[in-house]
Amino acid sequence: MVLNLTNVISGKLSQMPFEMTLTLDLSDFEVFGAEGVSPFQVKGMVERRGVELEIDVHYSGTFNFSCNRCLNPVELKFERDLTKQIIRQGGEFIEEDEQSLFIEDYNVDIERLVVDEIHLSMPIQVLCDPSCKGICPNCGKSLNEDECTCSEDRVDPRLESLKNFFSQN
Ligand SMILES: [Zn+2]
Ligand SMILES: [Zn+2]
Fold first, then answer.
1. Range of the domain at 138
2. What's this model's pTM, rounded to 2 decimal places?
């Protein structure tokens, strides 16, 4: 959703609250392993402070993943408050940083802003629990529920030859 700031930029309004529900495109997040996404609740305010414009945004929603080790479903909540200074793109080139948001005309693309922030906060690894034991690569059993017997049956070949070496003497 695009917010038109004409009234705050012109000084007609000093504040402009907004509230929306964003339906995010899951395909933007599949590269991070996301398998589902809830609608995101977004609200905030654009405010004029002297000659400066500031935007406050709060968003919250959830993404569904699979645990990277055991493949159990994991739901992660994404929630953030952020404040940025709105800078209207002029002639000179200034690099946009975390505190600033550039706009080219009178509009702020709220969806783009939120999607960019979510991208930055996507986890590198998703685990159902930091101590998740994962799945046995041999029998496929989830090791969180039960110990499998694979490790007992399997003898490390290096130990096997060592065992033979000692039994020869
Ligand atoms: Zn897990
Ligand atoms: Zn096993």
1. 133-169
2. 0.78
